[in-house]
Design brief:
Blueprint: H1 4-25, H2 34-50, E1 74-76, E2 86-87, H3 90-103, E3 116-122, E4 125-132, E5 135-141, E6 147-149, H4 152-156, E7 183-191, H5 194-202, H6 213-221, H7 226-231, E8 235-241, H8 251-261, E9 270-272, H9 275-288, E10 296-303, H10 306-312, E11 322-326, E12 331-343, E13 348-360, E14 363-369, H11 373-379, E15 382-383, E16 386-392, E17 396-402, E18 412-413, E19 436-437, H12 445-456, H13 468-476, H14 491-495, H15 502-514, H16 520-526, H17 534-543, H18 547-552, H19 555-559, H20 566-577, H21 579-591, E20 612-616, H22 624-632, E21 637-638, E22 648-651, H23 657-665, E23 669-671, H24 672-680
Parallel strand pairs: 2-11, 20-21, 20-22, 22-23
Antiparallel strand pairs: 1-6, 3-9, 3-10, 4-5, 4-7, 7-8, 10-11, 12-13, 12-16, 13-14, 13-19, 15-18, 16-17
Helix pairs in contact: 1-2, 12-13, 16-17
The structure holds 2-(butylsulfanyl)adenosine (IVH).
2-(butylsulfanyl)adenosine binds at residues 82-84, 86, 119, 121-122, 126, 189, 239-240, 266, 300, 319, 322, 324.
Length: 682
């Protein structure tokens, strides 16, 4: 049993972690570095592991997930989750304003008119959170408005979902809990930031990428593995407090209250007193929204005075006291100048459109993918055509249509190459494929470059400084044929390259060296096996803790790995039979890149630094592997038998001959209780 000191320490850590989470996410004023935060979390996780009775559902350690949900139970919303009527027209916003004015009880329309809160509309998935006695008890999706899915385990992983509500104005946790006996429902939007969305897509095979952050959010919330949800870093923005929990009658004050409760809320909302203020808010964010780290597709207007809302009423679908103004999809028209056929790491040849630069959704676009040959045919696009482009997920520009009436007389159809633009090998088109392919896997410089770039990318080995320009020179000068060659590069070899000075060469070699410590799952992902994204690489690493075992696995064995179907199994199997891949793996192995999943756990403390520990007899609090792990996390390791090199013997119930031997050799022997104390002693 944990003594009182430890119980208090765990509670103190929990409160501190919650407080720093709040400072970071809600107030955007962090006081400590990320690593200090991580250390606190590790310390708490260590305590909870040793004393499982300390674990609570609202502990911040629970955010890492790990629950596997078979299927999501259905929940019936306490109050229907209404949607909003929406409009694309600014005139209709004026009409909405007048309509609400008319519906207000007499006397209310006088004076300066009703105030509206204008908020940004988050582009994500609506979620309802229920708090009982201040503790998160349920998270549910909107579903059809009446019934949704219970996604509580997934909601818990979201850093901006408080697991318990903050006591107002007091961090000590000693004040009486104002949430006792309350049931509070908070609604809001779960969304993914643009940078996290881009990173997620980078970690996925090309044919499995999400079209925009909203789809990525919806897909993530439906995942059955909450640990994967945790990794994807969703956000929750609270915009609605159901009922009248603390009597607050103004929506803007409720937003502030939600913030003090620990919720992330829209920082940009404005209280508007007339249609002109509303219009100026909408037009301000029409231009400024691109600078936000997340996507917003419009502005939501809500009558501020909650007690007046009943008078205005609702239809069965949406309240009459609120409306969403949606920004029209951003499109731009420009001219297609040329099409370059780009060769990817798997030999796939993708047409890329080069366009006259044009401003779109906050950036200047001068290139866009045309996806494949079928797409060129479908669009019937010619060189010099005027094309309409749009951004998928505000990020990736794509050509959506051709303005044929503007086609000039000099416009020519796009010529599809017959040979690889990089190595001149005749291109092939495999049956059923929409793209051409360069079959010269071994010699094609474009493929080599793309494979090395993938290996160095942030989700794989994350080698900073190894950009496109350097990789191109490395391949062209034959300094590197594959990722394995990177580890043989010296500063001298790099100094000869363009834009590589003394300092940057040393730095790059250092970055390459450091990448050797990346996890085995990231190495696996970096190999660039067709259809294997980071999530699949993790599954494979779990099922096969070494690359050698993975390479030896049969097709049937591979198909039995969770989330690995026959197509992926076939691709993995073929990869390890491929001599080009085998040569690269050999080089990586020789260089000392991780090929096994032996975990390097972060240290909890150094209490067993360098010690060899032997366990004997039955331990009451832990299984043997657990106890051994506790030692490893503190810098020591377990040994199977006692020798004069043993530093410590932990004797449980009914110890065996090891105890006698330890006594004979004069090795220090401790009881299980003493061992426990050593784990956390200062
Ligand atoms: S208020 C009864 N506020 O947009 C009022 N909704 O098109 C409930 N949304 O279903 C909604 N940001 O999923 C509100 N600041 C915001 C919002 C917001 C995004 C979503 C929400 C809603 C949809 C309506």
């Amino acid at each position: 049993m944990a003594d009182e000191k430890i119980v208090l320490e765990a509670e103190r850590l929990r409160r501190e972690i919650d407080r720093h989470n709040y400072l970071y996410y809600v107030l955007a004023k962090p006081e400590i570095e990320d690593y200090e935060f991580d250390r606190m979390l590790e310390k708490l996780a260590g305590l909870e592991k040793t004393y499982p009775e300390l674990k609570t559902l609202d502990s911040p350690t629970q955010r890492v997930g790990g629950w596997i949900t078979k299927e999501f139970p259905t929940v019936i919303h306490r109050e229907p989750m209404l949607s909003l009527s929406n409009t694309y027209s600014i005139e209709e916003i004026g009409e909405f304003y007048r309509r609400v004015m008319k519906l207000l009880p007499p006397g209310e329309e006088g004076g300066e008119g009703p105030a509206f809160v204008a908020e940004l509309k988050f582009d994500g998935v609506a979620v309802s959170l229920l708090y009982e006695n201040g503790q998160l008890s349920r998270g549910a999706t909107r579903g059809d408005g009446m019934r949704g899915d219970d996604i509580t385990p997934n909601a818990r992983t979201i850093n901006t979902v408080p697991l318990r509500l903050r006591p107002a104005g007091d961090d000590s946790g000693t004040a009486p809990n104002r949430y006792d006996g309350t049931v509070i429902e908070v609604r809001g939007e779960v969304f993914m930031r643009k940078d996290d969305f881009a990173a997620l897509n980078e970690s996925r095979p090309e044919d499995e990428q999400f079209a925009n952050p909203r789809n990525a959010t919806a897909g993530t919330l439906k995942l059955q593995d909450s640990a994967e949800v945790a990794r994807r870093k969703l956000y929750f923005a609270a915009y609605y407090l159901e009922g009248e929990p603390f009597g607050e009658k103004a929506h803007h004050a409720r937003l502030e209250m939600l913030k003090t409760m620990g919720f992330y809320t829209d920082r940009h909302y404005r209280l508007c007193h007339d249609p002109e203020e509303i219009r100026s808010f909408i037009s301000h964010w029409d231009n400024e929204r691109w600078s936000l780290p997340y996507e917003t597709d419009g502005v939501v207007l809500k009558l501020d005075d909650i007690s007046l809302r009943a008078a205005v009423g609702s239809t069965s679908k949406s309240p009459r006291w609120a409306i969403a103004f949606k920004y029209p999809a951003q499109r731009a028209s420009t001219v297609l100048r040329k099409v370059v056929f780009q060769v990817g790491r798997l030999g796939t040849v993708t047409p890329v459109a080069y366009l006259d630069p044009v401003k779109l959704a906050g950036t200047t676009v001068s290139r866009s993918t045309l996806h494949n040959l079928d797409e060129i045919e479908r669009l019937d696009v010619h060189l010099l055509d005027t094309v309409l482009i749009e951004k998928a997920g505000e990020i990736i520009p794509k050509v959506v249509s051709v303005e044929k009436q503007k086609r000039p007389s000099g416009a020519r159809p796009i010529t599809v190459p017959e040979v690889c633009p990089s190595c001149a090998t005749p291109l092939v088109r495999h049956e059923g494929e929409v793209n051409l392919c360069c079959p010269n896997e071994e010699g094609c410089p474009a493929q080599k470059r793309a494979r090395i770039e993938h290996f160095a990318s942030r989700n794989a080995m994350d080698i900073s400084g190894l950009g496109k320009a350097i990789v191109e020179q490395l391949v062209d000068k034959e300094l590197a044929h594959d990722a394995g060659d990177l580890y043989g590069l010296t500063p001298d070899m790099l100094r000869g390259l363009e834009r590589q000075g003394e300092k940057s060469s040393l730095k790059l070699v250092d970055a390459i060296e450091k990448s050797k410590s990346r996890g085995y799952d990231r190495v696996l992902f970096g190999l660039g096996i067709r259809h294997v994204g980071l999530a699949t690489a993790r599954e494979l690493a779990e099922a096969y803790p070494s690359m050698e075992e993975l390479g030896d696995a049969s097709l049937d064995e591979l198909s039995a790995v969770p989330d690995v179907g026959p197509v992926i199994a076939e691709s993995v199997h073929a990869f390890f039979k491929n001599p080009i891949a085998c040569r690269m793996i050999e080089k990586l192995h020789t260089a000392g890149v991780r090929m096994t999943s032996e975990e390097t756990k972060a240290r909890v403390n150094d209490n067993f630094d360098g010690m060899k520990v032997v366990f004997t007899g039955t331990l009451e609090r832990h299984t043997r592997p657990e106890a051994a792990e506790l030692v490893v996390e503190r810098g020591g390791r377990e040994a199977g038998s006692v020798s004069k090199n043993t530093d410590l013997v932990v004797a449980g119930k009914d110890p065996g001959s090891k105890l006698e031997k330890a006594r004979k050799l004069g090795v220090r022997v401790v009881s299980e209780e003493e061992f426990e104390a050593m784990l956390f002693g200062e």
